[in-house]
Amino acid sequence: MSRRGLPTATLRPPADRRFHRPDVVRRERRRRLTRVAGRFLKWGVPIVVVALVAAALVHAALRSPLFAVRQVTVSGNARLSAADVERLAGNVRGQNIFAVDLAAARERVLTSPWVADVTLARVLPSTLVVDVVERVPMAVARVGDRLFLVDDAGVVIDAYGPAYRDLDLPLVDGLVAASGGRPAADAERASLSRALFTSLRDRPDLGRRVSEIDVSSDNDAVVLLDNDPTRLHLGDRAFIERLTRYLELAPTLADRFSAIDYVDLRFGDRVFVHSESKRRGRR
Fold it and tell me: Do 38 and 112 belong to one domain?
């Protein structure tokens, strides 16, 4: 009691909680480590095991003779032989099928001017499939005294020679330019010739009658028909309509003119005829 007879309270300083923090931190760390370890055992270990198994399988596949390329199947080729295509692909027989670089093999096959496109695929366990899209020759381009096979886009495929005598194709002038390197078609003239070839493809009866084409002008295709020396100026469109119109008029023109140099069909219903002479006794 105090001197005045009143009870006194004993004051105690509050406990310092800081002395307990290290224990709390350690317990929390242990809990976190336990959770992480549990998650790793649940998910990490199976993933690692699967990865190791997959790596082992890949390693075994790359070394197994079961997956060595034994067969190369080529399709879509006509002028190129299957052996030519296989050689261009890189002679992959005996290589592991998974180790074959399909992109590089494709680029090698595309170096042939006969090949417009190609796809390659693996067929397990040991077959490589090569599907070729060959260019189709549409004409024989004349450059000076040289002749070249060209497709409908004016791409030079090969020099024309005895090996291609079975092809019945029109002769084209003005399409391919002479150069020091590989002959190449002029872009504008190639576009004109392609439009003409596309039209004639839809009318093979007319296409078979075309013997010569001149695309020396970018916007005027000049055509010669079999057994007809008359040059026909067709312009850059409506080729079939203009050819048909000429064939309808041909008997009348032959009756009126003894020799026709050219007929210009580019101006709708008006047809211009250039002739050095008319038949005697007629006007």
Answer: no
Element (H, E) at 6: none
pLDDT digits (tens, 9 = 90+) for 229-246: 999 999 999 999 999 999
Put simply, whether the predicted model's pTM sits higher than 0.90 gets the answer no
Spatial contact of 128 and 147, defined as CB atoms under 8 Å apart: no
Q: Residue 196: inside a domain, yes or no?
A: yes
112-144 CB burial, b ≥16 within 10 A, e <16 = bebbbebebeeeeebebebebebbebbbbbbbe
Strands 270-274 and 231-233: unpaired
CB atoms within 10 A of CB 62: 12
Determine the Cα–Cα distance for residues 236 and 213; give it in Å rounded to an integer. 13
> Do residue 145 and residue 267 come from a single domain?
yes
Element (H, E) at 259: strand 257-259
pLDDT tens-digit map of 199-209: 999 999 999 99
* Local structure of residue 238 (DSSP, 8 states): -
Question: Of the ranges 21-30, 129-138, 187-196, 256-265, which one carries the lowest mean pLDDT score?
Answer: 21-30
